[in-house]
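#random but structural
TW: two for the price of one
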Amino acid sequence: MLLASGIIALLILLTALFVAAEFAAVGARRSRLRRLAEDGNALAARILPVLEHPQALDRYIAASQVGITLSSLILGAYGQASIAPRVAPLIERVGGLDPETALSTSTVVVLLALTTAAMIAGELIPKSLALQDPTRTALWTVVPMQWAERLFTWSIDFLNGSGNLILRLLRVKTTGHRHVHSPEEIELLIAESRDGGLLEPQEQVRLHQALRLGLRTAQELMVPRSRLAAVEVATPFSEVLRLVATSPYSRLPVYRASVDDIVGVVHTKDVVTNYIANRHHASLATLLRPIERVHGSIPADHLLAYMRDRRIHQALVVGEHGQIEGMITLEDVVAELLGGVSDEFKSATARAILLPDGSVRLPGAMRVEQAAQVLGADWRAPGETVGSYIAKVLGGVPATGEHVSVNGVDMVIEAVEEGVVLSALAVPPSAGGS
């Protein structure tokens, strides 16, 4: 009886080994194993080629599945042959059954007991341990698993070949086992890592935004054509200097005749450098830099790679027929990941922007006294912002796109978010009266 118990325990341990190896192979972190292999860990060097090649991983997992099946079958057959006959007399005495019925009953009881023990000790426990530390488990099990893989070579070839043949008949593409996860699964892993204390809430938000970056398009992140702060190519150099000084941006698109015909972009640094070297003896056309064009439907993650590869900071966004719909900058894309990113040559302070049509874009966070000085308007509200002042004068928050008059200044509300005016376009009194 002692020998039989030892053999049963060994078979359950073999099942546990194969189960742990299977879950560890799927869940192990290749980056960590790669570092261990580079540091001289021999076991990591053995398991790493398996995990990095789908076909090798497929055979490795097939070996574990064959091992689980064989050890389970042998366990049931051995238990039935060795344990059931010894339990039958006890059942015969206790239950008052005839020998044949007692043997059948003992067979069922032994199979149920062994199946329960194998499920708990041979599958559930090793699975939990492997999922908790898949990398270490993969290292511990790689040597016996490679022995088993060589031992089961013929079985693996036959079973994998049969399975692939059936899949081809069903016209299902075979890809093998790979460490791939859907976006939803990755989000779940990120959330679990945060709940487990491995990620800070801010890190989880950034990872979530990075994961969803591919769902946003250039058209969704761009500055619309109607809001572009651009300059006409024939603008006198002195006026260009003034525009550069008042603009919060270091790069301004340059157009010919209308914004529909943008011919390039001018950099603040080029304007200042040329002014220092030549004073006013320059034309804007000589300072132009080319500007790329991208389709509005391009995903933001592809756009980020596109701009990085070409080392560009901005691009025009065009529609189906090549018409200009807006402009997108590298900062617009990065802001989707990290939040607002201010221009590298300008401060993040809210400033007014003079647009080509003579109107002025006022940020909602700008101080009223600063806006009044820019517009030459009679606005007096010490300590208030433009957004709160507009809402106070009108007795409520206007809607986006609404035309209003604020103490003699005609305005168009450009953006409103959660009851707060983010920006507005204003026509100064002098321009309005001309």
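TW: number two ↓
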Amino acid sequence: MPTAKKVSTFAVLIALVLALAAATALAAGRSDGSKPAPASIAKGIAAVPPSTFDKIGKGAIYGPKDFQITPLGGKGGLGGAEGEKVPVLTYNAAWCPHCAANSWALAAALSRFGTFKGLRLVDTGTYYEKVLEAKPAYSHTKGISFIDATYTSEWVEFAAVVAYDVNGKKLQKPNGEETKLLKSFDPELGFPAVAIDKSFGLLGSGYDPGVIQGKEPAAIVAALKSPSSPIAKAIDGEANVITAAICEADDLQPEEVCASLGVQKAMKHLPKQ
């Protein structure tokens, strides 16, 4: 007959196994269909030379009809306040090729202010084409997934909401405060959307997803360093605009980023508050 101590130890082990199984099931239940990205992806995104950003400026991005930037006229969204970190919120869907396109620029911009850990890669699949019957469908566009990733920064506080997985299944919902902020520049809660504090709301991708359709993530990252690459002109250009919006919300800090030539050029693309 087992002793009381052995029974207690056995019970603890069982509890730990059950807790681990529950945690694994929860993680699986909230998966958007993405897979862990190799460390080289985050490293490559963060390694885009400042000189490349400076040469590209706002690059080859859409105008305000397709890439809407709305001045929100304030600060202190999502719990932030003047003098604190700038809160940045992204709202997207894993099946959405425009979200995939936007994710590269957002990751590049945020990597200028901090460091990502646990980034994932997502293939948008064919939901946009076969279920929503979209044309052009940009099927199997590769993008970055921020689900469960961590972000460390002295300047920015980042949050991501993934509304649907690659098969169109509902996944996450923005909370009340996030919903209110997103609806302040898009009552329909469309995506991709990025809220930068209560300063700017960005809706849509800054460029045509066809620029990266059919390209593998490693090839996309490699192209970001070349100012002459169409991929760099699109992604780095949008990244400069997102960076400029964050700088405006953070009183042009940090100076080494916000005073750079590429960001200063991109600021001219922002609507005035």
